[in-house]
Amino acid sequence: MNFDVKETLKRLCLCCGVSGSEDEACTAAAELLKRYSNDILLDDYGCVSAVIKKPAPGQPLVLLEAHIDEIGMIVTHIEENGFLKVANCGGIDRRLLLAQQVTVHGKEQLKGVISAMPPHLESDEERKKTPEIEKIAVDIGMNKESAQRLIAPGDKITFDTAFRELKNDRVSVKAIDDRGGVTAVLYALEMLKEQEYPCGLSVLFSSQEELGERGAAIGGFRIQPDISLSVDVSFGYTSDAVEYKCGKMGQGAMIGIAPSLNQEIADRLIAVAKEADIPYQLEIMEGETSTDADTIGVTGAGVKTGLVSIPIRYMHTPVETVAIGDIEAVGRLLAEYVLRFEPISERNQKL
Amino acid sequence: MTENLKKLCGLCGISGREQTVADEIERQISPYCSCRRDNLGNLIAQKQGKKRAGHTLMISAHIDEVGMIVTDITSDGMLRFAPVGGIDSRVIIGRSVLVGDGISGVIGTKAMHMQTAEERGTAVKSDQLFIDIGAKDREDAQRFVSRGESVCFDSDFLEFGNGFLKGKAIDDRFGCALLIELIRSELEYDTTFVFSTQEEIGLRGAKAAAYSVNPDFAIVCEATTAADISGVDGEKQVCALGKGAVVGFMDHRTMYDRELYRLAFQTAEECGIPCQTKTMVAGGNDAGVIHTSRGGVRTIAVSIPCRYLHSPSCVIQKEDMNSCLELVRALIPRIQTL
Q: What pTM, to 2 d.p., does this model score?
């Protein structure tokens, strides 16, 4: 198979795609989609969608979906000394912001550092706390005049992190949430290439998930799938977390079970994983899932949704960490689900 | 000097593990001076000038950097660590590091989604953090890492903005780069250069070196905290980037020689070198143990203003590097004629 999961992930994660400014990531994803579709749409709302196979008459349409945006920051103000004041786009772990290296996406890409108060200006009490986002500023090494020429309020900021390889084929970089999901979907498409399967297939890479699953609402409505499988990341266990709420790194796809998800789809995913010998684990949630699946499920007259997640550590940080094997497991599970597709029960009966 | 600073900052050398850095510096300077190492790993270089010196002048910079040391490996293959030198734990979380001989690791915690509101607002202490090298369990981790291994920030060196530089370990590889420039150039008088070890854990290398060199005068080349950042005004900024070499009158470890302090500013003015003082009493450096060595050593420190000192992202301005270099160069003959 001519598909390098690690390289694809690297390429996608290093793109800028802060919620609301997904263009660079979308363009890269659209380029990768060209191998599988000649019907690709980059919409006005920052989503990428593609028709992979039109459903034959009577066949249901299955959607494979992941969000393309990442958390980041947005410039709100340029200070007299040229430092940038910022707000968060999506949930930022503010405990790790100080002295972090960032890229400001202005007219040019500019490097900066999040300024940190030196010890002599903070009391012991202050040092025990983490600053509110309103208190921080980004140092771009410029005075106000230079900054204003290149940067305007509304410009986005990403963490500037290199792609790093850890042991056991684990890697660390920003934006694995959810370019890992995008990579898994692309990997599934590679496996489905030139294969026969009894359903239609479309793909959506949605925008603004981190702000409240907004792209999924728009994309999902336009595509109107019968069944939607969302791929997102979930919590990989570290010893400071509650174990039963986490997946284990390297132990495969996390199949979601939740009141907001279709249980028949979940059961089918489990059956397919067993049949195809794909490593999987269960993720039980008590209501909604905080993923695009929540929103897609209620688009139009409602969509039957499933959720498959990739366990990652350090979510929403510049050092998100994933096992490549888990992305592969998710991709294989999606592909096998489609290849072994079985229609699920229809409850829309006219009495 | 920028290129060499980049090279030196790229090396890993926490306190007590400075050999790689010392080896590189010795390789660079050995054609221009005679070198020796002492029992603490200090690299001491004797440079011949055009004239014999009346006073023994020692110019020093420390080669160690702040970092971490692996203290334990947990059953699930994570590395426990302790900071080496003063590091704010808030600049450790969410970073990449290099363990031992270049093994990549990252430092994080459970996701913010799983934190309570109180946890989100509280700095995580370093003893609650772990380094993740991707190991499956303790046995797997032990194949790559042993307890006591050193850990450095994995942070690239880059130029940004209008002539600014960012990197780890600028404190005090900048001083090292400055000394190397001087050693490579022709000097007026014989001068002793010390690349000292273990500064960050208590000015230890310099204490031994000052004893063995037994100088009359000393110049310490350093990086010092600048707080010319958003939300800080007036004297609390201490010093500012772009305003030249920093010469302080007092810090937490040293009351600097009054005559040398005046000489530094007088020299800067005569030579047109930008120079500033520190507007708060803060910090401390090798001068603390050098000026009290033996019967006392008349000492001054010439430092580059540096934002976010002791973090993976130290920031300096290029022009200030030159100001420091030129000021130290100009001070050598003036001190000899005191």
A: 0.93
